[in-house]
Amino acid sequence: MTKPVNPTSLGMPNGTTRPQLRIVIVGHVDHGKSTLVGRLLHETGGLPDGKLEMLKAVSARRGMPFEWSFLLDALQTERDQGITIDTTQIRFRTKLRDVILIDAPGHAEFLRNMITGASQADGAVLIVDALEGVRDQTRRHAYLLHLLGVKQVAVVVNKMDRVDFSAVRFQAISDEISAHLVELGVTPAAVIPISARDGDGVATHTDRIGWYRGPTVVGALDALKPALALDELPLRLPVQAIYKFDDRRIVAGRIEAGHLAVGDDVVIMPAGKRAKIKSVERWSATPLEGEHGAGRSVGITLDRELFVERGDVIAHVGVVPSDTRRLRARIFWLHDQPLTAGSSILVRLGVREVRGRVVAIEKAIDPGELASVETKQIARNHVGEIEIALSQPVAADRYVDNPRTGRLVIEVGGRIAGGGLVLSIDAAQRVVSSDIVPVQSALQPEERSARYRHQGAVVWFTGLPGSGKSTLARALEHRLFAKGGSPILLDGDTLRAGLNRDLGFSAADRSENVRRLAEMAGHLARNGHIAIVAAVSPSRGDRAEARSAVDTAFREIYVATPAEICEQRDPKGHYAKARAGDLPGFTGIANDYQAPETVELRIDTSTVDVGRAIDGIEDMLRQTQVLDDGAADLAAFEAV
Amino acid sequence: MTSTNLERVRSDVVSMDHLDQLEAQSIYILREGFARLKKLALLWSLGKDSNVMIWLARKAFFGHVPFPALHVDTGKKFPEMYAFRDHYSKEWGLDLTVEYCPSIDSVDPTLPPAARSAARKTEGLKLALAKHGFDGLIAGIRRDEEATRAKERVFSPRGVEGGWDVRDQPPEFWDQFNASPPPGAHLRIHPILHWTEADIWAYTARENIPIIPLYLAKDGKRYRSLGDADITNPVASTASTIAEILVELDGTTIPERAGRALDHETEDAFERLRVAGYL
Fold first, then answer.
1. What per-residue confidence (pLDDT) applies to B2?
2. Which domain holds residue A564?
3. Into how many domains does chain A fold?
C-alpha cells in the first residue's frame, strides 16, 4: 500500500540530505560549556523566536546579567544553582552541515550524565577556562572521551577576556592540555582562544585575538568528520529476538558491522552452528534483495531449524567473534559502591546479558589526578582494568577489532553502573588437548544443587600457621553438612601426607602444592560440592592462580589473626621449633606471608568466636549466591 | 562462500539516508523494549508523532503491533481525531484500548487553566497504568520539542507515583538501556526521541502515512501540533501539502509548541507537569 516517494523530489531542506555531526561540549564545571552552546546557536541563527527575550527575563528574575546557559539549563534546579545537571541536545546549522550539540555537565557529581551525552558524539569540544587552566574534570573528561571512543577533539580556551586576551597565557594552557591529550593518544584538531560570552573566536576572528591564526569554533566543527563507516568490518548481527507472529520464524537484530545478503553462509556464535540466510524480511515488502549494511535493523530467516536465542551473534564463516567465558576490560565506574575483586556483576555485551564475577582488578586510577595512585578497587568516577569470568560462554570481539561489539556495560541492582572496552579475550578457556578426552559426570550440576541447596564452590582459608584455619574449616564443614550440604575438607597438611608427599617447602614446591589443591578443589566444586581448603598458601601469586583455575566459584577467606597470637597458640609446636632453628622455610616468623588485599571475607579469630565466625561465612556464601536462600536464582550461578 | 562474503565490496551495500538511519534506530529501541519489559502499551495520541511511531512498530515487528495502542482520552479532542482513530485502528489491526480521564473537578484547582487540563491527562494516565499494570509505556516525545524533553533518556524510569526524577536519571550509553523498573513503577520508552519535526514530516511523506487533515493549511491557518481542542491554537500558514510544510519549517524560527497554551503559563510550567508524570 505504501508507494515510496523519493525524498529528494520533495525539495527537502531540513536535515534529510545534509550531513549530520554530533558534537559534545565537555570540560570542568563553570568553564563555560553551556555559554558556548548558547553563543554558537546565536551566531548561527539557530535560536527560536522569543528565546532571547525569554533568557533576558529569566536572568533578570534572578538578578543576574544575561546568562546564555539558561537556554540549555532548562530545569528549575539547574537555573537556580547555576549548574548543568543533565545532558541535553540542541541543533544548529553551519554552511556545510547540521550539527547536533550535546551539552554535558562538568560537575563531578553528574559524571554519569556527561557519559550519557558524550557516548553519542562523533567529536568533542573540550573547554578550558583561561584563568583557571586545566582542572581535574578537564583531565577526567579527556580520559573518558578516549574511553568512550571519541577520538576527534577540538580544545577551546574560554574566557580570554578575563586574561586580557593574552597570547602567552593561551600558549601555556594550549601546551599543557595538548600534552595531556597526546598522552591519551588523542591529537587535538585545533586549540582555539575564545570568549563565549562576547563571541570572539566562536564564529568570527576579532581584533582582540588578532594574534591567533587558526580556525574559529564553527570552522573547526566543519572540519570534523562524521562517524566511521562500519560496513567494512566483518559481519556482526547480534540477535535481538526471534519473532513468530505468522508462519515465518524471523531472526531480528541490527547489523552492528559488515553486511549481509540472501544466500550467505553464516555461523551462529557462541555455539558455532552453521546455516544459510534464506531471506531478508521487511514490512511491507518482502523479500529484499541486495546487500544490507551496518546500521540497518533487519529480520532474516535461515535455511534450517536451529536453536537461536537473544544474545547470539551471527557472523560470516571464517571471520567469527571469539567464544569465551573470560575477558579483560578497561572500564569506568559510576556506582557509589567501589568495584572490588570477587564482586558478582551483570554484564551486557550488546544485547547479550550474562552473569559474571570480577576475578581480578589489575589497575585502578582516578583520571582526574595528575599523579595517579593505583589501588585494588575501582571507586566511583574512577577507571581501571579488570578481568571478568562469565557464567556462560559469549561471543565477543576486542574493541580494537570492532568498536561496536567490543564494548560492554556492567549493571548492579538493575541499573547501569559502569562500562568499558574489551581489551583481550581468553579464548583458551574451552580448548582441550585432542589426546585427552575428559569424561563428564552422569549428573548435571543442577541436579546436585537441587539436593544440596547450594552451588559448587571452593572456600579457601589462607593465613599464618596457628591463625585458626583448620578450626574454622572443620566447623564450617560440620555446619554445612548438618544443613544437608556436601562439604569436603581439603587440609594442606593432610594432603602433604599422601597426594603431595613428593613436595617440600621450596617456593616452587609450595606453588605446586597450591596448584594441586586448587585443581582438586575446583574439580569437586564443578561437581556441586563445597571444597573447603585450609592452607597457609603464603604467596599472593599462587592464590591468584588458584582463583583463576577455579574461576567464579572461588571464595577466599583471610584468617587475619595477629602473628603474636598465632605464635602463642602454636598448636603444632612449629613456632617453637622454628625459633630453635629446627624448621627452615617455616612461614610465620620469617615474614614471608603475603597478606591478601581483596578477599571475600576477613576473620580475626582473636576477636570473634568460632560460632560467630561461621555465621559470617554463611552470610557471605549466601550473599555471593553459593548457598540458596530460597529466593535465589539457581540458574544465576551454574557451577563452572 | 567464505571468499565471496569477504570479497564483496562496500559499494554493493544499499546506502542508508538520514531517514533510514532514524528508522533503524527507532526499530532497535522498540525491539529492546519488547524484549525486556513484560507488559507494554504504546501511547497513541492520534497526532503525527504517534502515527509515525505505530508505523515504526509495524516495521519492527513485521506488520504486527504486539502490544495495545492506548488512547488516554480527554474527551476534548477534535472530531477529526476521533474519526481517524476509529478508522485506522481497524485498518492497521491495532489492539485499541481507550481509557477516559477523570472529571476536571478532581484536578488541583490552583493550577493555571491549561496546566490543569494537562494534569487531568496525567491523572487519566495513572488510572490506566493502575488498571492494566503496564510496566512500560511507549511515548512519542522528541528532544527538539521542548527543553526538558531534550534531557530525557530513551528508557526513562518513573517512580511508583509516576513521577520523573530529573536529578537522578540513570546513565544510558552505547544503546544500553536501564530496563528494570522497581515493582509498581514503570518505564517510559521514547523511540523517536532523536527525530525532529521535519524528520517526522519527511518520513510521513516518504512512507505515505495517513495524517489528520488539520495539519494542512485551510483558510491561511493550520495546526502544527494537536492537543485538546480548547487549549490548542492554529498557526498562520499556507502549507497545504507535506512538501510545503517542510519548506515552511526550513524558514521558521517559531517553536513547534507555540500553539500549545500549557507550555507558556510560567517559566517551569512544563517541567512541573513532566516531573508529575506528564509526557
1. 41
2. 445-637
3. 4
